[in-house]
Amino acid sequence: MPPDHGGHGLANVPATVLAALGASEEGDLPPLADLDPALADGVRQVVLVLADGLGWGQLERLCAHGTTPFLSSLVSRARARDGAQLLEVTSVFPSTTTAAITTLNTGRTPQEHGNLAYFCWLEEFGELTQMLRWGPAKHRRGSYFGDPAVDPTRFRLVRSIHARLAAAGARTYVIEPEVFRNEAMTRMHAAEAAFQGYLLPSTLGVRLRQALEMRPWGDALAYVYAYWAGIDTAAHWYGPRSAEHGLEAALFDRALEHGLTGRGRGDTLVLVTADHGHAEVDPAHLIDLEGDAELRALLTHPIAGEPRLAFLHTDRPDAVRARIEARWPGAFTFFDREEAIAAGLFGVGDASAARRRVGELCAMLRGPRAASLVRVDGQTVQHRGAHGGMTPDEMRVPVLALRC
Question: Which domain holds residue 332?
Protein backbone atom coordinates (compact mmCIF):
# COMPACT_ATOMS: atom_id res chain seq x y z
CA MET A 1 0.00 0.00 0.00
CA PRO A 2 1.97 3.04 -1.21
CA PRO A 3 1.56 6.46 0.42
CA ASP A 4 -1.00 8.96 -0.81
CA HIS A 5 -0.17 12.66 -0.89
CA GLY A 6 -3.12 13.89 -2.91
CA GLY A 7 -5.61 14.26 -0.07
CA HIS A 8 -5.81 10.83 1.51
CA GLY A 9 -2.52 10.72 3.38
CA LEU A 10 -0.95 11.74 6.65
CA ALA A 11 0.93 14.50 4.84
CA ASN A 12 -2.44 16.13 4.13
CA VAL A 13 -3.16 16.51 7.87
CA PRO A 14 -0.74 19.44 8.45
CA ALA A 15 -2.02 20.95 5.21
CA THR A 16 -5.49 20.84 6.77
CA VAL A 17 -4.20 22.58 9.90
CA LEU A 18 -2.59 25.34 7.84
CA ALA A 19 -5.69 25.81 5.69
CA ALA A 20 -8.04 25.92 8.67
CA LEU A 21 -5.97 28.66 10.33
CA GLY A 22 -5.35 30.70 7.19
CA ALA A 23 -1.67 29.92 6.72
CA SER A 24 -1.66 28.01 3.44
CA GLU A 25 0.78 28.98 0.74
CA GLU A 26 1.65 28.03 -2.82
CA GLY A 27 3.31 24.64 -3.01
CA ASP A 28 1.44 23.11 -0.06
CA LEU A 29 -0.11 19.71 -0.39
CA PRO A 30 -3.92 19.76 -0.49
CA PRO A 31 -5.90 19.42 2.76
CA LEU A 32 -7.66 16.16 3.58
CA ALA A 33 -9.82 15.51 0.55
CA ASP A 34 -12.89 14.06 2.24
CA LEU A 35 -13.05 16.21 5.38
CA ASP A 36 -16.53 17.64 5.92
CA PRO A 37 -16.16 21.41 5.27
CA ALA A 38 -18.53 22.12 8.16
CA LEU A 39 -15.97 20.73 10.62
CA ALA A 40 -13.39 23.32 9.56
CA ASP A 41 -15.74 26.25 9.01
CA GLY A 42 -15.07 29.17 11.36
CA VAL A 43 -12.30 27.35 13.21
CA ARG A 44 -10.10 29.46 15.48
CA GLN A 45 -8.19 26.63 17.07
CA VAL A 46 -6.97 23.24 15.86
CA VAL A 47 -5.97 20.48 18.27
CA LEU A 48 -4.04 17.57 16.80
CA VAL A 49 -3.70 14.50 19.03
CA LEU A 50 -1.16 11.95 17.82
CA ALA A 51 -1.39 8.45 19.26
CA ASP A 52 1.94 7.01 18.16
CA GLY A 53 1.51 3.59 16.56
CA LEU A 54 -2.31 3.38 16.65
CA GLY A 55 -2.99 2.01 13.19
CA TRP A 56 -6.38 1.63 11.55
CA GLY A 57 -6.60 -2.12 12.13
CA GLN A 58 -5.60 -1.74 15.77
CA LEU A 59 -8.27 0.90 16.35
CA GLU A 60 -10.89 -1.34 14.73
CA ARG A 61 -10.00 -4.25 17.03
CA LEU A 62 -9.87 -2.07 20.15
CA CYS A 63 -13.31 -0.64 19.45
CA ALA A 64 -14.77 -4.04 18.59
CA HIS A 65 -13.50 -5.50 21.87
CA GLY A 66 -14.81 -2.63 23.98
CA THR A 67 -11.30 -1.65 25.08
CA THR A 68 -11.62 2.02 24.14
CA PRO A 69 -15.19 3.13 24.87
CA PHE A 70 -14.61 6.85 24.28
CA LEU A 71 -12.94 6.30 20.92
CA SER A 72 -15.74 3.87 20.10
CA SER A 73 -18.28 6.58 20.84
CA LEU A 74 -16.47 8.97 18.50
CA VAL A 75 -16.41 6.32 15.77
CA SER A 76 -20.15 5.76 16.28
CA ARG A 77 -20.77 9.49 16.04
CA ALA A 78 -18.73 9.62 12.85
CA ARG A 79 -20.67 6.77 11.27
CA ALA A 80 -23.92 8.51 12.21
CA ARG A 81 -22.54 11.82 10.86
CA ASP A 82 -23.20 13.34 14.27
CA GLY A 83 -20.64 16.15 14.37
CA ALA A 84 -17.70 13.81 13.82
CA GLN A 85 -15.99 12.08 10.93
CA LEU A 86 -13.65 9.11 10.55
CA LEU A 87 -11.22 9.09 7.63
CA GLU A 88 -8.78 6.39 6.60
CA VAL A 89 -5.46 7.74 5.31
CA THR A 90 -2.05 6.32 4.53
CA SER A 91 1.08 7.00 6.50
CA VAL A 92 4.15 8.41 4.83
CA PHE A 93 6.88 6.08 3.58
CA PRO A 94 8.86 4.78 5.29
CA SER A 95 6.01 4.26 7.75
CA THR A 96 7.99 5.34 10.77
CA THR A 97 7.81 7.93 13.53
CA THR A 98 10.92 9.80 12.41
CA ALA A 99 9.48 10.53 8.98
CA ALA A 100 5.84 10.91 9.98
CA ILE A 101 6.23 13.27 12.92
CA THR A 102 8.57 15.51 10.94
CA THR A 103 5.95 15.60 8.19
CA LEU A 104 3.29 16.59 10.72
CA ASN A 105 5.55 19.35 12.05
CA THR A 106 6.54 20.71 8.65
CA GLY A 107 3.78 19.91 6.19
CA ARG A 108 6.43 18.45 3.87
CA THR A 109 7.03 14.90 2.71
CA PRO A 110 10.02 12.81 3.86
CA GLN A 111 12.10 13.38 0.75
CA GLU A 112 11.81 17.13 1.33
CA HIS A 113 12.44 17.31 5.07
CA GLY A 114 15.11 14.59 5.03
CA ASN A 115 14.23 12.71 8.24
CA LEU A 116 13.63 9.56 6.28
CA ALA A 117 14.19 6.68 8.68
CA TYR A 118 15.28 5.67 12.16
CA PHE A 119 18.87 5.27 10.89
CA CYS A 120 20.33 7.40 8.08
CA TRP A 121 23.81 8.02 6.77
CA LEU A 122 24.43 11.76 7.16
CA GLU A 123 27.11 13.32 5.01
CA GLU A 124 27.05 16.32 7.36
CA PHE A 125 28.70 14.20 10.07
CA GLY A 126 30.16 11.38 7.99
CA GLU A 127 28.52 8.62 9.99
CA LEU A 128 25.39 6.60 10.57
CA THR A 129 22.92 8.61 12.62
CA GLN A 130 19.99 7.74 14.86
CA MET A 131 17.64 10.37 13.49
CA LEU A 132 15.20 10.86 16.38
CA ARG A 133 18.12 11.59 18.67
CA TRP A 134 20.14 13.20 15.84
CA GLY A 135 23.24 11.58 17.24
CA PRO A 136 25.81 8.92 16.30
CA ALA A 137 24.25 5.47 15.98
CA LYS A 138 27.38 3.92 17.49
CA HIS A 139 26.57 5.64 20.80
CA ARG A 140 23.36 4.87 22.67
CA ARG A 141 23.02 8.39 24.06
CA GLY A 142 23.80 11.95 23.11
CA SER A 143 23.03 14.24 20.21
CA TYR A 144 25.13 16.34 17.90
CA PHE A 145 23.33 19.22 19.59
CA GLY A 146 24.82 18.44 22.98
CA ASP A 147 27.13 21.35 22.36
CA PRO A 148 25.13 24.49 23.27
CA ALA A 149 27.01 26.37 20.56
CA VAL A 150 25.42 24.18 17.85
CA ASP A 151 22.13 25.54 16.54
CA PRO A 152 19.73 22.69 15.59
CA THR A 153 17.72 24.93 13.29
CA ARG A 154 20.73 25.21 10.94
CA PHE A 155 20.22 21.57 10.00
CA ARG A 156 16.53 21.60 9.17
CA LEU A 157 15.79 21.59 5.47
CA VAL A 158 12.28 23.07 5.51
CA ARG A 159 10.27 25.47 7.66
CA SER A 160 8.06 24.20 10.44
CA ILE A 161 4.31 24.77 10.40
CA HIS A 162 4.77 26.44 13.80
CA ALA A 163 6.85 29.17 12.15
CA ARG A 164 4.31 29.58 9.37
CA LEU A 165 1.38 29.76 11.78
CA ALA A 166 3.22 32.31 13.94
CA ALA A 167 3.78 34.44 10.84
CA ALA A 168 0.02 34.28 10.22
CA GLY A 169 -0.70 35.54 13.74
CA ALA A 170 -1.49 32.21 15.42
CA ARG A 171 -0.09 30.80 18.66
CA THR A 172 1.28 27.26 18.64
CA TYR A 173 1.80 24.79 21.47
CA VAL A 174 3.40 21.38 21.78
CA ILE A 175 2.24 19.01 24.55
CA GLU A 176 4.77 16.21 24.89
CA PRO A 177 6.54 14.21 27.61
CA GLU A 178 8.89 16.50 29.54
CA VAL A 179 11.90 14.41 28.45
CA PHE A 180 11.25 15.60 24.87
CA ARG A 181 11.80 19.26 25.73
CA ASN A 182 15.42 19.31 24.60
CA GLU A 183 15.26 16.43 22.13
CA ALA A 184 16.70 17.07 18.68
CA MET A 185 13.41 16.78 16.79
CA THR A 186 11.69 19.23 19.13
CA ARG A 187 14.55 21.69 18.85
CA MET A 188 14.65 21.39 15.06
CA HIS A 189 10.98 21.33 14.09
CA ALA A 190 9.01 22.84 16.98
CA ALA A 191 11.37 25.60 18.10
CA GLU A 192 8.76 28.28 17.47
CA ALA A 193 6.09 26.56 19.60
CA ALA A 194 5.50 26.96 23.34
CA PHE A 195 6.45 23.64 24.91
CA GLN A 196 4.16 22.23 27.59
CA GLY A 197 5.75 19.15 29.08
CA TYR A 198 4.08 16.48 31.17
CA LEU A 199 5.63 13.96 33.54
CA LEU A 200 2.75 11.47 33.71
CA PRO A 201 0.93 10.29 30.56
CA SER A 202 -2.44 10.93 32.20
CA THR A 203 -1.56 14.63 32.35
CA LEU A 204 -2.08 14.78 28.58
CA GLY A 205 -5.81 14.78 29.28
CA VAL A 206 -5.44 17.67 31.71
CA ARG A 207 -3.48 19.73 29.19
CA LEU A 208 -6.06 19.08 26.48
CA ARG A 209 -8.88 20.16 28.75
CA GLN A 210 -7.02 23.34 29.58
CA ALA A 211 -6.61 24.04 25.88
CA LEU A 212 -10.35 23.68 25.31
CA GLU A 213 -11.69 25.38 28.45
CA MET A 214 -9.12 27.90 29.68
CA ARG A 215 -7.65 29.01 26.35
CA PRO A 216 -4.58 30.59 28.01
CA TRP A 217 -3.77 32.33 24.75
CA GLY A 218 -7.07 34.22 24.77
CA ASP A 219 -8.91 34.73 21.49
CA ALA A 220 -5.88 34.35 19.24
CA LEU A 221 -5.84 31.69 16.56
CA ALA A 222 -4.08 28.66 18.00
CA TYR A 223 -2.67 25.26 17.11
CA VAL A 224 -2.11 22.61 19.79
CA TYR A 225 -0.14 19.43 19.04
CA ALA A 226 -0.38 16.69 21.69
CA TYR A 227 1.55 13.41 21.65
CA TRP A 228 0.98 10.03 23.37
CA ALA A 229 3.88 7.56 23.15
CA GLY A 230 2.80 4.42 25.02
CA ILE A 231 0.69 2.58 22.44
CA ASP A 232 3.67 2.40 20.09
CA THR A 233 5.94 1.15 22.87
CA ALA A 234 3.47 -1.55 23.92
CA ALA A 235 2.95 -2.66 20.31
CA HIS A 236 6.69 -2.92 19.74
CA TRP A 237 7.52 -4.95 22.82
CA TYR A 238 4.39 -7.06 23.29
CA GLY A 239 2.63 -6.97 19.92
CA PRO A 240 -0.31 -5.01 18.49
CA ARG A 241 -2.81 -7.66 19.66
CA SER A 242 -1.40 -8.05 23.17
CA ALA A 243 -3.11 -7.37 26.47
CA GLU A 244 -0.40 -4.80 27.20
CA HIS A 245 -1.23 -2.94 24.01
CA GLY A 246 -4.93 -3.02 24.87
CA LEU A 247 -4.46 -1.63 28.37
CA GLU A 248 -2.19 1.16 27.15
CA ALA A 249 -4.81 2.09 24.56
CA ALA A 250 -7.45 2.07 27.30
CA LEU A 251 -5.37 4.54 29.32
CA PHE A 252 -5.05 6.78 26.28
CA ASP A 253 -8.80 6.51 25.75
CA ARG A 254 -9.48 7.66 29.31
CA ALA A 255 -7.08 10.61 29.03
CA LEU A 256 -8.63 11.59 25.71
CA GLU A 257 -12.11 11.45 27.19
CA HIS A 258 -11.07 13.72 30.05
CA GLY A 259 -9.46 16.16 27.64
CA LEU A 260 -12.22 16.38 25.05
CA THR A 261 -15.35 16.38 27.21
CA GLY A 262 -14.65 19.81 28.65
CA ARG A 263 -16.68 22.86 27.84
CA GLY A 264 -15.18 24.02 24.59
CA ARG A 265 -16.34 27.06 22.62
CA GLY A 266 -17.38 25.15 19.53
CA ASP A 267 -14.66 26.76 17.41
CA THR A 268 -12.03 24.03 17.83
CA LEU A 269 -11.32 21.39 15.20
CA VAL A 270 -9.92 18.27 16.88
CA LEU A 271 -8.00 15.74 14.80
CA VAL A 272 -7.02 12.43 16.44
CA THR A 273 -4.62 10.42 14.33
CA ALA A 274 -1.54 8.17 14.30
CA ASP A 275 1.79 8.20 12.53
CA HIS A 276 1.73 4.53 11.47
CA GLY A 277 0.37 1.14 12.44
CA HIS A 278 2.12 -2.09 13.38
CA ALA A 279 2.75 -5.38 11.64
CA GLU A 280 2.98 -8.42 13.90
CA VAL A 281 6.50 -9.86 13.92
CA ASP A 282 8.34 -12.71 15.62
CA PRO A 283 11.75 -11.80 17.11
CA ALA A 284 12.85 -15.42 16.70
CA HIS A 285 12.77 -15.00 12.91
CA LEU A 286 15.12 -12.09 12.40
CA ILE A 287 17.31 -11.72 9.33
CA ASP A 288 20.73 -10.37 10.27
CA LEU A 289 21.86 -8.44 7.22
CA GLU A 290 24.62 -6.71 9.12
CA GLY A 291 26.12 -10.02 10.20
CA ASP A 292 26.88 -11.04 6.60
CA ALA A 293 30.51 -10.06 6.03
CA GLU A 294 30.30 -10.65 2.27
CA LEU A 295 27.32 -8.29 2.04
CA ARG A 296 29.03 -5.62 4.14
CA ALA A 297 32.04 -5.72 1.82
CA LEU A 298 29.78 -4.67 -1.07
CA LEU A 299 28.52 -1.56 0.74
CA THR A 300 30.02 1.93 0.86
CA HIS A 301 28.30 2.88 4.15
CA PRO A 302 26.77 0.88 7.03
CA ILE A 303 23.26 -0.50 6.58
CA ALA A 304 20.64 2.11 7.45
CA GLY A 305 16.86 2.44 7.32
CA GLU A 306 14.36 0.47 9.37
CA PRO A 307 14.05 -3.10 10.71
CA ARG A 308 11.62 -3.78 7.84
CA LEU A 309 13.29 -1.60 5.19
CA ALA A 310 17.04 -1.58 4.64
CA PHE A 311 18.85 1.29 2.90
CA LEU A 312 21.86 -0.21 1.12
CA HIS A 313 24.50 2.30 0.00
CA THR A 314 26.53 0.68 -2.73
CA ASP A 315 28.18 1.19 -6.09
CA ARG A 316 27.44 -2.48 -6.90
CA PRO A 317 23.65 -2.79 -6.52
CA ASP A 318 23.36 -5.87 -8.72
CA ALA A 319 25.92 -7.74 -6.64
CA VAL A 320 24.21 -6.69 -3.40
CA ARG A 321 20.86 -7.90 -4.62
CA ALA A 322 22.33 -11.18 -5.82
CA ARG A 323 24.03 -11.78 -2.48
CA ILE A 324 20.85 -11.18 -0.47
CA GLU A 325 18.73 -13.27 -2.84
CA ALA A 326 21.22 -16.13 -2.61
CA ARG A 327 21.23 -16.17 1.17
CA TRP A 328 17.57 -15.21 1.87
CA PRO A 329 15.66 -16.13 -1.30
CA GLY A 330 12.28 -14.45 -1.64
CA ALA A 331 12.53 -12.55 1.65
CA PHE A 332 12.78 -9.04 0.20
CA THR A 333 11.29 -6.77 -2.40
CA PHE A 334 14.06 -4.69 -3.95
CA PHE A 335 13.73 -1.29 -5.51
CA ASP A 336 16.12 1.25 -6.90
CA ARG A 337 16.30 4.61 -5.12
CA GLU A 338 15.70 6.60 -8.29
CA GLU A 339 12.74 4.42 -9.23
CA ALA A 340 11.27 4.97 -5.77
CA ILE A 341 11.73 8.74 -6.04
CA ALA A 342 10.15 8.76 -9.50
CA ALA A 343 7.18 6.76 -8.16
CA GLY A 344 6.67 9.25 -5.34
CA LEU A 345 7.25 6.72 -2.56
CA PHE A 346 9.28 9.16 -0.46
CA GLY A 347 7.05 12.10 -1.29
CA VAL A 348 7.02 15.04 -3.67
CA GLY A 349 9.21 18.07 -4.28
CA ASP A 350 12.95 18.43 -3.84
CA ALA A 351 14.50 14.96 -3.58
CA SER A 352 18.10 15.99 -2.95
CA ALA A 353 17.99 14.89 0.71
CA ALA A 354 16.59 11.50 -0.27
CA ARG A 355 19.40 11.03 -2.78
CA ARG A 356 21.95 11.68 -0.04
CA ARG A 357 20.31 9.65 2.72
CA VAL A 358 18.65 6.67 1.00
CA GLY A 359 20.90 3.94 -0.34
CA GLU A 360 21.08 3.22 -4.05
CA LEU A 361 19.23 -0.03 -3.36
CA CYS A 362 16.39 -0.59 -0.88
CA ALA A 363 15.35 -4.00 0.46
CA MET A 364 11.85 -4.20 1.97
CA LEU A 365 10.58 -7.25 3.80
CA ARG A 366 7.91 -9.29 2.09
CA GLY A 367 6.05 -12.56 2.42
CA PRO A 368 5.93 -14.62 5.61
CA ARG A 369 9.26 -13.38 6.95
CA ALA A 370 8.83 -11.62 10.29
CA ALA A 371 11.51 -8.93 10.26
CA SER A 372 14.87 -8.05 8.83
CA LEU A 373 17.43 -6.92 11.33
CA VAL A 374 19.20 -3.62 10.79
CA ARG A 375 21.69 -4.04 13.60
CA VAL A 376 23.92 -1.14 14.59
CA ASP A 377 26.80 -1.44 17.04
CA GLY A 378 25.45 -4.67 18.49
CA GLN A 379 21.87 -3.45 18.91
CA THR A 380 19.36 -6.26 18.50
CA VAL A 381 15.67 -5.85 17.74
CA GLN A 382 13.43 -7.98 19.96
CA HIS A 383 10.12 -6.50 18.90
CA ARG A 384 6.78 -8.25 18.36
CA GLY A 385 5.34 -5.30 16.49
CA ALA A 386 7.20 -3.34 13.82
CA HIS A 387 6.72 -0.79 11.07
CA GLY A 388 8.61 1.01 8.34
CA GLY A 389 7.36 -1.12 5.45
CA MET A 390 4.37 -0.82 3.17
CA THR A 391 1.86 -3.44 4.36
CA PRO A 392 -1.69 -2.25 5.12
CA ASP A 393 -1.13 -2.90 8.83
CA GLU A 394 1.73 -0.41 8.79
CA MET A 395 0.34 2.12 6.32
CA ARG A 396 -3.35 2.53 7.21
CA VAL A 397 -4.02 5.11 9.91
CA PRO A 398 -7.21 6.78 11.17
CA VAL A 399 -8.10 10.46 11.33
CA LEU A 400 -10.99 11.18 13.70
CA ALA A 401 -12.28 14.71 13.27
CA LEU A 402 -14.76 16.55 15.50
CA ARG A 403 -15.66 20.01 16.78
CA CYS A 404 -15.34 21.01 20.43
Answer: 283-386
